[in-house]
């Protein structure tokens, strides 16, 4: 009796075999793969085929969900053969309750729950996470741990904001060697432009909600980063460390497609 992941892989193999033999058209095979099963829990429909489609299993967004709901989703994913699952924006109270049912590791700074071990890095190079100030660390660590969870070597450069530019310039070699750089900053968000002017790789800017009243909860940093004059800088949403870490991992695993 195979487990659900093995059965799913067998189904995929049969689809490909049918295409090879001419029993199934390419379009019909594509439709079959895209409409693969999900687990309907009533309050959630857990995507059981995302790893096959996108190379990574579904990530659980913990904010707004009860600990019981998160645990039930984890149950469904584990039953489908998922041995590694990431839970973002997980509160300490929910993490404690989820831990009673699943052996997750919890990082309170990043508010991440991680089921399974960290993989060996297999990306093309390193992902540098540069944070302007200590207050930006929760978002920066969310980005760094997310990148590591998806198989990337991460170099952390923390408290290297533009108020003391020499602190960043002391790590010029790390910046120059990076495959992708994540620049995390609140206030006026200037770090992304500075890094973008130094690096020859993609820069992912993450505005944070750190700052005084006129920063408007990160909107000032967001607009500054969107208006960066440095080429090769893209921007994710305010405080979205996960999105930056996931995208950096995708870029770091890119290869030319024939």
How would you portray this structure in words?
By secondary structure, the protein is of the alpha/beta class. The protein has 2 domains: 79 residues, no CATH class; 127 residues, Rossmann fold. It is 41% helix and 17% strand. The protein contains 11 helices and 11 strands. It has a 5-stranded parallel beta sheet with strand order 8-7-9-10-11, sandwiched between helices. Strand 7, helix 6 and strand 8 form a beta-alpha-beta unit. Helix 1 packs antiparallel against helix 2. The longest helix is centred in the N-terminal third of the chain and has 18 residues. The two termini are 38 Å apart. The relative contact order is 0.11.
Topology readout:
Layout: H1 4-21, H2 26-34, E1 38-40, E2 45-47, H3 50-54, E3 60-61, H4 67-79, E4 85-88, H5 92-99, E5 105-107, E6 112-115, E7 126-131, H6 137-149, E8 153-158, H7 165-169, H8 172-177, E9 180-185, H9 191-198, E10 203-207, H10 219-226, E11 233-235, H11 241-252
Parallel strand pairs: 3-4, 7-8, 7-9, 9-10, 10-11
Antiparallel strand pairs: 1-2, 4-6, 5-6
């Amino acid at each position: 009796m195979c487990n659900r992941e093995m059965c799913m892989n067998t189904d995929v193999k049969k689809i490909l075999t049918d295409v090879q033999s001419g029993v199934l058209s390419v379009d019909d095979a594509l439709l079959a793969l895209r409409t693969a099963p999900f687990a309907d829990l009533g309050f959630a429909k857990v995507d059981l085929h995302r790893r096959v489609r996108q190379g990574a299993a579904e990530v659980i967004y913990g904010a707004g969900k009860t600990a019981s709901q998160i645990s039930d989703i984890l149950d469904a994913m584990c039953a489908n053969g998922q041995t590694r699952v990431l839970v973002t924006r997980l509160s300490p109270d929910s993490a404690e309750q989820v831990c009673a049912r699943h052996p997750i590791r919890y990082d309170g700074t990043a508010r991440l729950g991680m089921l399974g071990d960290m993989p060996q890095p297999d990306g093309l190079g390193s992902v540098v996470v540069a944070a302007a100030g200590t207050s930006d660390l929760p978002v920066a660590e969310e980005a760094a741990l997310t990148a590591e969870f998806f198989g990337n070597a991460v170099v952390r450069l923390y408290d290297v904001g533009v108020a003391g530019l020499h602190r960043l310039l002391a790590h010029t070699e790390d910046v120059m060697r990076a495959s992708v750089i994540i620049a995390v900053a609140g206030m006026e968000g200037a770090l992304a432009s500075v890094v973008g002017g130094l690096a020859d790789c993609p820069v992912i800017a993450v505005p944070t909600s750190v700052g005084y009243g006129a920063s408007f909860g990160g909107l000032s940093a967001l607009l500054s980063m969107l208006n960066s004059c440095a080429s090769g800088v893209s921007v994710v949403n305010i405080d979205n460390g996960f999105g930056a870490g996931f995208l950096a991992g995708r870029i770091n695993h890119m290869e030319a497609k024939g």
